[in-house]
Amino acid sequence: MMDAVDAIMAVMEAAFDPAYGEAWNRRQVDDALRFPSTHFLLADTRGLEPDNPRDAVGFAMSRQAADEEELLLIAVSPAARGKGVGHALMRQFIASARARGSTRLFLEMRDGNPAEALYLKHGFAPVGRRKDYYRSGTVGPLDAITYSCLFS
Asked: Which of 16, 47, 106, 140 has its CA 20 to 30 A from that of 113?
């Protein structure tokens, strides 16, 4: 039977272009999820939590510290893109972080990532840049841009 880590890895392997070197390996995901401050969401084609992890086409993973939470990873399988799954995951991430008491959210993305429009639509704004941060792919190095969203 497929578990959550299997589902996350299946989506990540389909969604992350290896040219950028952004995908995590199974051990990184498994180790992160062992911490009680790390949270994840799975989404099916309707943007809802799937009854079976095998039906996941998207996921989000975050880490909370005090009243701040960082979106570590978010991905939607290429075949499910453009159908609202990413927006559903962002809405669920924001709502669950708020329910856990977070007042400020962060995320970091490589410069030029097409997911920027998704982040901007959900209230994130750029607050910093790390020059040449992404170096592990075959493209780059690329800058990392930090985004923040403050709850009012």
From this structure: 47
